[in-house]
Amino acid sequence: MHITQLNRECLLHLFSFLDKNSRKNLAKTCHKLLEVFQDPLLWSWLNFYSPVELKKKNFLLGPALKHLSICWYSERVKVCNIEDWMKNSFQKDFCKRHENTVSDFLLDVCNRCPNLLSLTLSGCGHVTDDCILQLLKNCPNLKSLKLENCVRITDHTLEAVTFHGASLRTLHVDFCRNVTKAGLEKIREKCPSVMLRAERSANMIPDSKPEKKLMLEKASRKFVQL
């Protein structure tokens, strides 16, 4: 039996095991497989690991998208989170080329993916508060927002959550150094149902549970007495 003799449900299941590039390559072989590639049901979850991936035409954006993850792990990409005055010429050139890549992509998501349920951004140094605000407005069903090492995110994002994050249940702002303790306390006050985590944010103060924080304080006092 040839693969094209399988029904659509079987083909969708097979495609689900492939990465984005493999799906695109398989779709080039015939019209039937291209139709499967273009089926929205295949694109409910998207993961990206480099700026270049966002520009490839190997995926579809649409109302079916429920979960989106954009995480930079490359050592070269990490330079975008270094202060400008610390960068060498190569680092500045590299960051400049990708400065608006993620922001432009997220604005496209705002316009085309209203049913988004979860968003994870890690190392996206050029994403701004306004970009997150637009997402919260255009994706009212968003339940999980996880931000890590997004250096331009400030208390304005936390404030936007209080106004437009009615469905939000999980909020992480780890290593977001421009988020303040006052902003975190405001979230706890106005959105008590949101599970908040802010490791190494708010002047590098970890967001510990009250009992854990108390234990740390006791340990610290004991150490000073010794």
From TrEMBL:
Classification lineage: Eukaryota, Metazoa, Chordata, Craniata, Vertebrata
GO annotation, cellular component aspect: cytoplasm
SMART domains the UniProt entry points to: LRR_CC
Top-level taxon of the source organism: Eukaryota
Pfam families, per database record: F-box-like
Gene assigned in the entry: Fbxl22
Xref: CDD domains: F-box_FBXL22
Full protein name: FXL22 protein
Keywords: Ubl conjugation pathway
